[in-house]
Amino acid sequence: MSQPSSQHHLVEQHTVDYVPPSERHGKARDLFTLWFSTNIAPLPIVTGAMVVQVFHLNLLWGLLAIVLGHLLGGVVIALASAQGPQLGIPQMVQSRGQFGRYGALLIVFFTALIYVGFFISNIVLAGKSIHGIAPGVPMPAAIVIGALSATAIGVIGYRFIHTLNRVGTWVMGSALLAGFIMMFAQELPGDFFSRGAFNLSGFVATVSLGIIWQISFSPYTSDYSRYLPREVGIAKPFWATYLGATLGTILCFSFGAVAVLCVPEGTDAMVAVKQATGWLGPVLMVLFLLNIISHNALNLYGAVLSIVTAIQTFAAHWTPSIKLRVVLAGVILVGCGLVALNASADFIGQFIGLILALLLVLVPWASINLVDFYLIKRGEYDIASIFRADGGIYGRFNHHAIIAYACGILVQLPFANTSLYVGPYSNIVEGADLSWLFGLLVTVPLYYCLATRAQPEMAQRVVGVKS
User: Fold this and answer.
1) What CA–CA distances, in Å, run from 128 to 124, 238, 282?
2) Of 306, 297, 350, 358, which Cα lies nearest the Cα of 148?
3) pTM for this entry
4) What pLDDT sits at residue 100?
5) In a domain, 398, yes or no
6) Measured distance CA(373)–CA(140) in Å, rounded
7) Are 97 and 103 in contact (CB under 8 A)?
8) What is the CATH number for 200?
9) Rounded distance, CA 398 to CA 451, Å?
10) I need a labelling partner for 221 at 20 to 30 A (CA). Which of 17, 207, 305, 467 fits?
11) Where do the TM regions start and end (predicted)?
12) pLDDT means over runs of 10, the chain (467 residues)
């Protein structure tokens, strides 16, 4: 039963069900703080350092590529986020309106796997950070502390996650700006502006990295906007998400690039941050640790919603309770915790390689999702059909979406450049993974053509359901 809007619960009461208008709350600007704070963490700093250390760009061309990549990729995450207030359901549940009730299961599975992968990786990273800050805490205990902290935030849910990130925006944003000031206030190395140079492969690789980084968030963006009132429209959530996600990542990527330029060439990125920011370095390490834990709560939250969505697919008349969300969070915590405790020294690198390879499945999904919402159905979905056992007007399988999705994955494989698989044409631009581009170029027009041809059939289904 829905809770009255006058009651404010600490623990979120919804799982994957529809959020009725009476329970909508918040403002679009909350999306800015969520995505800004989420992206200020060690991983984007280390990734930004790659622009100098791996792609060998100088500061000017590196910053230009960082900005361009994230501004382009940010359009995808912002368009996905703007769907939440219009539909009031999680992103993976909404996929039933594009792939059919059972057709959506594959992308739900991949998404859950990606969430779990990042959750485990961040548990290990949090454990290492805790052990580094307090060497007296054994590594296993540090991993458990990091895992339990993220789980507690994820169980409490939507409102608490937003609150933490509102605070985090001011704290982390201020700390990052102070770090920039500390770095530029010192005497800069003689090769600070001249180290590296423009090279096409490095520039394209950096732009691609920014685009892929933003797309990777798209499967769960509307999970954090679905409680907003429908009246906020599309433009406000779009711009709040776009500015938060792009500004946060651009600042953090740039921070990593500047930090490694402030120290001798070849210095580890996080070591460079400590050295380049002086007395502020240890403070930044503590703040980064807190942000890892907060961000990891999003991974747990998304994993739980994805798993609940998969289960509910086979039990249409069952409304998952808050108890199930808590139980699933506990199961994921135990399973992921055991994996993290037995992880090898290079586990994070190996797992991130697997997750980045799985991003091949997100590009065609994002293409179909956005084309369907904005160009085909123009934001109008039958929520009742999405929860019906037979899929309602969307059916159990939407073969047009499934065909376009499969083609979108297959066309990327020859151009893929991942740690798990390297395609025969992966070096069109050396060092850059351009598979996402071919995925977009094929999936978007293919799905649009198939979906528009199917519109008369969809209209007949609508009449049949209403009658």
Assistant:
1) 6, 36, 14
2) 297
3) 0.87
4) 94
5) no
6) 45
7) no
8) 1.10.4160.10
9) 10
10) 207
11) 32-52, 59-82, 102-125, 137-161, 167-185, 197-217, 237-264, 276-294, 326-345, 351-376, 397-415, 435-451
12) 43 71 87 88 86 93 97 96 92 91 90 83 82 84 85 68 76 91 91 92 91 87 89 95 95 95 89 90 86 80 83 78 74 82 68 69 93 94 91 92 96 86 84 87 96 69 52
Query: In which domain, by residue range, is 54 found?
Result: 21-96+105-346
**Tokens of residue 133, six digits:** 């800050």
373 within some domain: no
315, part of any domain? yes
Q: Tokens standing for 82?
A: 């703007």
CB of 141 closer than 8 Å to CB of 203? no
Look at residue 359 and tell me if it is in a domain: no
Question: Hey, how many other C-beta atoms are within 10 angstroms of the C-beta on 6?
Answer: 7
HSE (CB half, 13 Å, CA atoms) of 135?
0
Instruction: Reduce the DSSP state of residue 318 to 3 states and report it.
Output: coil
SS3 146: helix
Q: What is the 3-state secondary structure of 298-365?
A: HHHHHHHHHHHHHHHHCCCCCCCCHHHHHHHHHHHHHHHHHHHHCCCCCHHHHHHHHHHHHHHHHHHH
What is the C-alpha separation between 79 and 139, in angstroms, rounded?
Answer: 41
State the Cα–Cα distance between residues 462 and 392, nearest whole angstrom. Answer: 8
Q: Do the Cβ atoms of 258 and 188 come closer than 8 Å?
A: no
Give me the number of domains the chain comprises.
1
Separation CA 294–CA 298 (nearest Å): 7
Q: What is the CA radius of gyration of the chain?
A: 22
Reported as type and span, the H/E element at residue 39 is: none
Residues with Cβ within 8 Å of residue 109, at least 6 apart in sequence: 310
3-state secondary structure of 422: strand
